[in-house]
Amino acid sequence: MKHILTLVVMLLFFSCSSEKEKKQPTFGIVIHGGAGTILKENMSDEMEKAYIEKLTEAITLGHAILKSGGTSQDAVEKTIHVMENSPLFNSGKGAVLTENESIALDASFMDGKTLNSGAIAGVKHIKNPISAAIKVMHNSPHVLLSGAGADRFAVEQNLDTVPESYFITARRLRDLKSVQQLETDKKLILNSSEHLYFKNQRYGTVGCVALDLNGNLAAGTSTGGMTNKKWGRIGDAPIIGAGTYANNLSCGVSATGWGEFFIRSVVAHDIAALVEYKKLSVKEASKQVLQKVEDLGGDGGVVVMDTHGNVAMEFNTPGMYRAHMNSEGKLNVRIYGDN
Amino acid sequence: MKHILTLVVMLLFFSCSSEKEKKQPTFGIVIHGGAGTILKENMSDEMEKAYIEKLTEAITLGHAILKSGGTSQDAVEKTIHVMENSPLFNSGKGAVLTENESIALDASFMDGKTLNSGAIAGVKHIKNPISAAIKVMHNSPHVLLSGAGADRFAVEQNLDTVPESYFITARRLRDLKSVQQLETDKKLILNSSEHLYFKNQRYGTVGCVALDLNGNLAAGTSTGGMTNKKWGRIGDAPIIGAGTYANNLSCGVSATGWGEFFIRSVVAHDIAALVEYKKLSVKEASKQVLQKVEDLGGDGGVVVMDTHGNVAMEFNTPGMYRAHMNSEGKLNVRIYGDN
């Protein structure tokens, strides 16, 4: 009887460990195209279709890279390219304009395995800012480059550069005029115009978090910032810890929203800290940190993924352009406040 | 017997609560003037005396503000002014130079009660960058301004501006030439020169954390960055969460060191997260986070204070210019690796 029991225990042990070994490594990808006052009643069928199609195109490309064994870095970069190259989003082509009708693009990237990071702020000529952020990470001793110096770095790195006019669209010129008109009409002083600044512009920062078959997370974010921004304003998107963070010990995060509140709340790192130190799920951590942002008066959203492929797509705005694809290829693409 | 016992318990209760009520509110201030290879054998008696005197002057001023009921914001600002106005430190006058022999100053400030924050990066004409950071916080809808736009904002705010030549000292011109010569001699490619970049320049970012009699923390940091910096490089000093963080729920932090590693480690917020979420002391949290920085290959130091006035002055470099004064006015000023 004792021998039989020993045998059963041994068999159970081996069956469990072989199951563990056989377990398929997981991977996944999650993206956002910005959070804001995105309501079904204000959206034409045509625009809705265009957003759904572009989000699907972007995430499908990243998913294919991951499925074929590519790195999370490569998936994040190529996925964000699709959104940067589309005028639908506030990043790359179609970015919002500064007070001088000019362009100032921000982007950042972080590698969850090494904590290597790169970012650029206030560039005018780099076609794909996310690639410049990745180049800063690999080919400079710095993490964050800014302004004309960052544009010069991109040229030295042989990245695609374009004239500023490439990025500027009629839609964003209209947005700028509207925001400026509104400020003039209301004779707003700056402190009280904060709400209108945000509410009356288009949203659309883009971002991506990916987990590859090697279990490595990466996160990236790319944006044109806020319409009518002044004085060389830099938002949360190029700030490691605020707009972007990735760490294999916790999770990868890309944020979108009212950048000032996301900087003050150190949103991306705070989510990761709650996951690592308080063992919260990515969903619960995201909810708690967005609640803190809301308590300060800000809004926006995040996409988050941990090394098990658990995902959160949380926001406290009416909508967020977003999509998730798991390792089975199941696609979940959404715009409004339903899940 | 029972009545006597009840009486004793009641007496104990009232004596405890009255002691609690009588407890003096605490306050305190801690500063740093940069961490690095600061060794007794390389320091003249005259220079040592100059540093001790300037650190003492700065912290004594801030302490007096706090003692007379001033705010932690005011104490941090005025204390940092003393160090910004001294050519001994790498901030304000005496800041290190970029590759083009120019100036690019960074600073940030955070209020621990409201989480309001302000920062500027890459400015050339603001005499006291910490004051510009505070103005950004109060008088703009933004948190982080950069480059010429930030200088323009300072002019609009009637802050003291100076020609770039005001900041430039013979010592920093020599430092720049040395670093550039070293790079040329060694024909270093950028990736491998990271260590030398840092090791062969002067350190001296300045920072301050203060706790006022109302129990409010504030933190500020001001720097010229790294000698020979390129491409509009921005370090950790103007990044909320990296170089500066303050939150009455956890602690105030100002960091100094190899900025790139401090950004990647989100040093200031990570210390606060360990204090808030894992209930570590400010000293233990600082040690753990600096160990993470060291594991990545970086070095530097932090000054930290919580709302009880507990303080940490931790660093993993040979020395750090630092000082602490508690509510009793006890001064602890240090340069080398002793405590």
Structure, described:
The structure is a homodimer of 339-residue chains. Chain A is 39% helix and 21% strand. Residues 15-22 and 188-194 of chain A have low confidence and may be disordered. The first copy, chain A, starts with a helix and ends in a 5-residue tail after the last strand. The first copy, chain A, has one domain: Glutamine Phosphoribosylpyrophosphate, subunit 1, domain 1 (4-Layer Sandwich), CATH 3.60.20.30. Chain A is globular, with a radius of gyration of 21 Å. The first copy, chain A, has helices at 2-22, 45-67, 72-84, 129-139, 147-156, 170-186, 194-199, 259-264, 267-277, 282-296; strands spanning 28-36, 105-111, 117-123, 144-146, 206-211, 217-223, 244-246, 252-257, 300-305, 311-315, 319-326, 331-334. In chain A, a hairpin with a 5-residue loop joins strand 2 and strand 3. Chain A has 339 residues and is α+β, with helices and mostly antiparallel strands. At the A-B interface, strand 3, strand 4, helix 5, helix 8 and helix 9 of A face strand 3, strand 4, helix 5, helix 8 and helix 9 of B.
Topology summary:
The structure is a homodimer of 339-residue chains.
Chain A: H1 2-22, E1 28-36, H2 45-67, H3 72-84, E2 105-111, E3 117-123, H4 129-139, E4 144-146, H5 147-156, H6 170-186, H7 194-199, E5 206-211, E6 217-223, E7 244-246, E8 252-257, H8 259-264, H9 267-277, H10 282-296, E9 300-305, E10 311-315, E11 319-326, E12 331-334
